[in-house]
Recover the amino acids of this structure.
């Protein structure tokens, strides 16, 4: 665990304005955990209101377009996210890669666009179950990093990586601690190779079925600097239990 764990909730395509009450509860409690960076990525429709109403946390987008503006119906650009109050953007989530056909080159362009707009970036990588079973998990993730990691000057300082094995997302199954540590070490080696000293300080989050029951163990796993949380971030109680678990580890 790094000095400042980063715990981020990804609401995916969930949440209407009624859900802002959960976000406000998360914000009020987050103020009690000053040693933890807490973030939420709501759907675009809630971003502005959440950034306004929950100043105690960082609010971010789940995706952005690679261009700053133009004829791209239905898309949202990184400068628009900034205008709405976002401080970071998730790019390359496996659901974007799968359902929107995003390849590594596109993910990299999105990451660079987010950085150029002044946002932090959470770049997601992760293997399928078949790739893990075939012993190809580390090679797959290394290839994703080589293809999608932003390389621009200063990128490392505003970048986090989320290792999210696809087979662990929303399934209740998680890798063993040894598997997570080995993968995070492999990611760290690629980050240092590609970004030098800056790569050594990039936070590497674990994501995939993180919940209040397993959070302490997952966050205490060697080389884990935080968590990207899907389903368990949708209620203040369960998300705060995960933030509290991170706080317990730094206080210990
Ligand atoms: P999950 O999702 O926590 O619901 O498994 C994680 C993610 O996709 O970021």
């Amino acid at each position: 665990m790094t000095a400042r764990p980063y715990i981020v909730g990804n609401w995916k395509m969930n949440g209407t304005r009624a859900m802002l009450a959960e976000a406000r509860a998360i914000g009020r409690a987050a103020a009690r955990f000053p040693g933890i960076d807490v973030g939420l990525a709501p759907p675009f429709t809630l971003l502005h209101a959440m950034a306004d109403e929950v100043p105690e946390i960082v609010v971010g987008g789940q995706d952005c377009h690679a261009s700053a503006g133009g004829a791209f119906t239905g898309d949202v650009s990184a400068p628009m996210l900034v205008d709405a109050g976002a401080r970071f953007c998730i790019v390359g989530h496996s659901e974007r890669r799968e359902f929107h056909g995003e390849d590594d080159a596109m993910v990299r362009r999105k990451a660079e666009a987010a950085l150029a707009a002044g946002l932090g970036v959470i770049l997601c990588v992760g293997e399928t179950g078949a790739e893990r079973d075939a012993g190809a998990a580390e090679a797959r993730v290394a290839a994703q990093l080589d293809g999608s990691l932003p390389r621009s000057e200063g990128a490392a300082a505003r970048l986090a990586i989320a290792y999210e094995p696809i087979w662990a997302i929303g399934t209740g199954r998680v890798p063993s601690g040894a598997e997570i540590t080995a993968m995070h070490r492999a990611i760290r080696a690629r980050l240092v190779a590609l970004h030098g000293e800056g790569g050594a300080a990039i936070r590497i989050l674990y994501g995939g079925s993180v919940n209040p029951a397993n959070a302490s163990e997952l966050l205490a796993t060697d080389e884990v600097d935080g968590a990207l949380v899907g389903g368990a971030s949708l209620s203040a109680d369960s998300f705060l239990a995960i933030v509290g678990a991170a706080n317990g580890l730094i206080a210990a």
User: Anything to note?
Assistant: The longest strand covers residues 120-125. The chain has one domain: 6-251.
